[in-house]
Each structure stands twice: as C-alpha cells, then as structure tokens.
Amino acid sequence: MDFDFPEELAETRKKIREFGLRELTPELAEKYDREEKYPNEIRKKAFEAGIINYENPWGMLMAIEELCRIDPGLGISATVSLFGEEVIMLFGTEEQKQKYLTRVNSGELIMGLAVTEPGGGSDVAGIKTTATRSGDKFIINGAKMFITNGQIADFIVMLVRTSPPNGKRHHGLSTVIVDTKAKGFTANKLEGKLGVRATNTAELVLNNVEIPVENLVGPEGKGFYHIMTFFNISRVYVAAQGLGIAQGALDRMLQYIKKASALGIAEANSESSQFILAEVAAKVEAARLLTYKAASFLFQFKPDPIITSIAKWHAAEAAVFAAEKAMELTGTTGITSDLERFYRDAKILEIWEGTSEVEKLIIARMLTKEDGTQ
Amino acid sequence: MINEEYRILGDTVKEFSEKNLEGSSLKIERGGLGDDIITKMAAQGFLGAKIPADLGGSGIDEKGYLIILENLARVSPSAALKVLINNSLFYPLVSESGDTGTIEGVAGGKVNATVAMEEVQEGYLESGKLSVSGGRLTGTKIGVINSDATVVVALGGESGKELFLIKNGISKGRSNPSLGFRGLTLSQLVVDSDDYISLGSEGLDRMTKVMDSLDLEISAIAIGISEGSLNKAIEYTKVRSTFEHLLKDYEPVAFSLAHLNSEIEGLRSFLFDRDDLNAKERLELKFLSVDLAKRCTKQALQSHGGYGYLQDFGVEKFYRDAMALSSLFFRRERDNRRLAEEVFQGKAGFI
Questions:
Q1: Do A145 and B143 touch (CB under 8 A)?
Q2: Count of A-B CB contacts under 8 Å
Q3: What pLDDT, in 10s, does the model give residues B226-278?
Q4: With CB atoms 3.0 to 4.6 Å apart as the test, which of A102, A162, B57, B77 could cross-link to B107 if both were Cys?
Q5: How distant is the alpha carbon of residue B62 from its chain centre?
Q6: What is the DSSP letter of B1?
Q7: Does A332 touch chain B (CB under 8 A)?
C-alpha cells in the first residue's frame, strides 16, 4: 500500500494550488461572499487553465480540495458547474451525452441537479413534483428547493414522479432533463444564506413545463435508483470539500501561531494551543485518508456506500470542528479575518448531499444488513 | 428585588423582545438595531439598567440586570450586547470621570458609546495605536464592536496603557466581515479628536479588570442565545415532517434537544437561584454557558436542515452570535488560567 500520489498527480495538485492562490484572492472571496454573487469569471478561468477536467477524477477531487482550502465559497462555485452530470453519464443515452455532457465538460454550459423539495429535505422518495406523459412530451408541475446552480444553470437533471407509488414510495420516480429556458420554469435565488454565499442556490417552480420524452434519463421509474447511485458519487466530492475546508482552517491556525510567536505572544504557542492544533491535525488527516479511500473505491468503479458515508460525515464534521477550533484559538483575530467565513461555510457540509444524521443511518443500516442483523 | 419582582421583570423583557425585536429580527441583522429600537430600549430603562438612577440609569441590581440580558439575547443577542456595552464596559470605565452629561446621555440612549477593547481581547495581533500630539488624539483602533458610536473609551498615549474618553472626531474605518452581532457594526475606528479626557494611566489594568468581571453577564447572554435557538428548534421539529413523521418523533432529534434543554435549565438555575456565587463559580458558569451556546446553536441549526442555513428562519444568527460571543469575550488562555488558579488556590497552568 502506497500513501503517496504518483508524481503526475502531485504536479496536478501543485498546478491547482498555484491557480487557486492566484485567482481566488482574499478580496474576491470577501466580495462574492458579501454580494452573494456567483463568480462566473473564476469558473471560466478554471476551465481554461485545465483545473476542471472530468477525465481526471483524482485531479477533480484535488481541485475541489485545494480550492476549498483557499476559499470554500469560491472553491465550490468554481468546481460545481457539472453538478449532476454523473446521472447522464451513467444512465443517459449517447445523444444526451453528446448534447449535454460535451458542452458541460468544456465549460460552455452549467448544469444542476434538482431533488429536494420545499418541506421535503432528506426524504427523496417523498417528492411531489410530477411529470405527466402527454403524447411525445412530459408536462412537469411542482417545486424544488435548495438547488445549487438553480438560477444560473442551462439545464437541470430533475427527479420527478412519473407514476403513482403503488405501495412503495421509491417506485414510480424518474430522472429527466429540464431546459431552464422552458416556458413555465422559474428560478428564485435564495439569499441570506449563512455561508457558501458565492454559490448560487435557488428555489425552482415548475408550472406546466413541457419537455420532450427523449429527455427521460434512463428507464422510466428508476429515478430513485439513479439518485441514490449519484449520491454515492457526489458524497465523495463533498468529503473533498470538507477536507479542503478543514485543511484551510488548519493552515490559518498555523499562520496565526507563527505570527503571534514572532510578536512574542507566548500564549499562542502554549501547550494547550498545541493540543488544539494536534486535535485538528488528526481530524484533518483522518478526513484525508477516508476521503481518498472512498475516492479510490469510486474511481475503480466499485464504490463502497459505507466508506463513502463515513468519509462524507467525518470530513464534514472535521471541517466544522477545525473551523470552530481555529476561531477559538485565534479569538478576535479570527473574527476579523477570513476564518469567520470558513466557520460559516463549513456548516453546510453537515446538511447538503445527505445530512450527518442520514449518513449515520446509512452506515448503521448497511452494517447491520451485512451482518445479517436485519 | 424580591422573587416576584424578578419574575415580573423577566416577563416584561420577554414581552418587549417578542413585540419589538422578534418581528424586526431580519431588519436588525441586515441594517443594525436602528434608532427606533434604541429609543424603545432606552424608554424601558435597559440602556442604563445598571447605571445609578442619579446618573439617568435604572439602578437595577445584578440579578435584575442579568434577567434583562438573558431575555434580550433570547431574541436579539445584538440588543443584549448593546446593553452590556453601555452598562458593563462603558460605565465602569467612565464612572469616575465626572462627565455626568455623557453618562446620562448613554443611559438615556441619546449618546451611542462603545469601548475599544482590542488590547484585552486575547488573540489580537495588530492592535491599533492612539497618540497624543499638539492637543489632538489621533490613530486607529481595530476590530471595534458598535463602531457607529460617537463616544469611545480606548487605550492610547505613549505607554499605550492610558485610558481616554473620546468625545468627538470619531469615524468608522474599514469594516470587518461581521460574523455575529450584526445589529452592531464591527469595524476599525479612526480617531482624530480634540475633545477627549484622560481617565488615568492605569487604563490597561482597569480594562482587564472590567473584562474579568463580566463572567455572569456573558453567561446570561450565552444562556439567552441557547434558549432562543433551542426554542426555535423545538417549535420547528413539532411541525416539520420527514419520512412521514414529525421530526420530534425521531429519537436522535428528540433526545439531543431534550438533553440541551436540561443543560439550559441547569445553568439557569446555577445563574439565578444563587445569590452568593464566588469567583470560581462565576467563571465556571461562563465556561459552561459559552460552551453550551455553541453546541446548542449548532444542534438547533442542524435540526432545521437546509432551512436553518437561511437567515429567514432566524436560527443561523444564533449560531454566528454564539461564536462571536466566544471570540470577543472568552479569552481562552487567560480565562483557563483564572479558573485553574481558582481550583488550585494558587499559581497553576503556566507551563
């Protein structure tokens, strides 16, 4: 077992880091957070620089990690424009891949994935948005909530109900591609978020939105399975977000200790401070190993849902823990620096792509199932 | 005051908060407390709660004052902090200045005052300086909360330890990103004043003592923050369903919120049911209350799921304010050492 990345990936990481430090400046990070604005220019530059390259999954993972380490809001925004593409990649037709994925992967288009509904939260099978067949079209009615890229996406992969549940709630669900310029489609930007304010989040309203039947992704009625498969992929990338944020907080703790020590503030490097630093470093390292382990399984096409959920849960918790401890260590310095943004940004990781509670249930239920207890 | 009077006071502040602060919660977070709310708080006597009546204050006792802080913080931690700045920071530092006019103005809400505390807030690396030259006091203070103030108490002079009451020539400098207490502004403060009073050369010691004396006040605000956030979570989980059941019906949700509620009740009892808390117990309360506020607000936000992340639901502000309270008023090294020395009855925890 070798814990070192090959030289080629180490080079990729270096290139990403250099790009991030050059483009994700503190001024831009502060501005986009304050204005709650999506940094489209940074996204475009990331594509131009080859930072976003879906053909290199490890590179993609590193891009998320390294850019979030510099600034979570900008880092996530720059790397999330392809959010949901795995659904088309795994279950879509060749025509759909050509029409949509080629242009998303080149940076020309932005996409999103819409599952959550107002009042719905974690209960994926409980969605109420319907797609009713009418000749060669589906007519969609309903609403979606907390949709990343919702207002800026060119198209959205959406989970809809195409037939009644017939006793099993997760039956009768399908995934479809919805053009955001379609008549009856409205996206309302959600403002006043605690953190990741540079990312675009919206509520979608669908009022008799018509889509051609060829926009159905995969077999009708298999939508729940498509989305669960997708979550087993996306959660690895969320773990990378957590790892990046946790490492970013640790970086700033170290910078603070160095600076304070140089100024003769002995307390900054006291034994109790060192203990806090060590605790954070241990959490970060554990998040790193778990994230890479989950990614390793995924990139070899044998994802392990237990490891994926453990990685996502732990990395999210590590990000929140590291940001908290960094704030506590740095006191007033932290509150007047970008650390306060890390603190606000980190919390979303315990909520999106499956709350920490959902991850724990997945882990426990799969373990007991494997064990034959259930 | 007797117990019945404390109960009535608590109900009065609660009613005031619900009537005047709850509905304006978003407005306060986005645009500050505003003159209207300040006027109403002054009319209730909150702004000069602890300041003696002959100086325009309410002259309330310690327990009554803590009840005010707690019940304001349940709805608006910014409003509670405003009261704390006036009564527990500004007034103790200027009480012997003889400037009764300014004190009366602060107590009555006519004068907006603050204290630049950077030198005594552990962790601050880039302290600003104020220098005296040619009859003017000039310089910049960093990370000042309630920086819209027109009257400021700050350290400066050649030693950097002289205390000044500055009454004109104050303007806001570069704003800092504001994690919490957004009802009050956090920014640099630029001073170019010819109207200031020296309050003595032992200013750093006095300011440190004032900070050390805030244990119960910080506890009351932290408990209020915990209560405010937990109440939101309890109400939300009673009506919000997921997987066809109310959130409150799920063990992890109900158990965690119930445990936090027990901790709040324990600390409230610790704070309000005893009249003879010693220095060690006061400090213990602060440690426990600030820690609880951070845990409670995190769980309250989590219980709201994605909605908790939105300002509209009024729970994320508690999450920010709990950490901001800790950053501004919990001095990790100093407070830990104070506690260790109380426990060991002597020098301890210094290696």
A1: no
A2: 132
A3: 999 999 999 999 999 998 899 999 999 999 999 999 999 999 999 999 888 99
A4: B57
A5: 15
A6: -
A7: yes
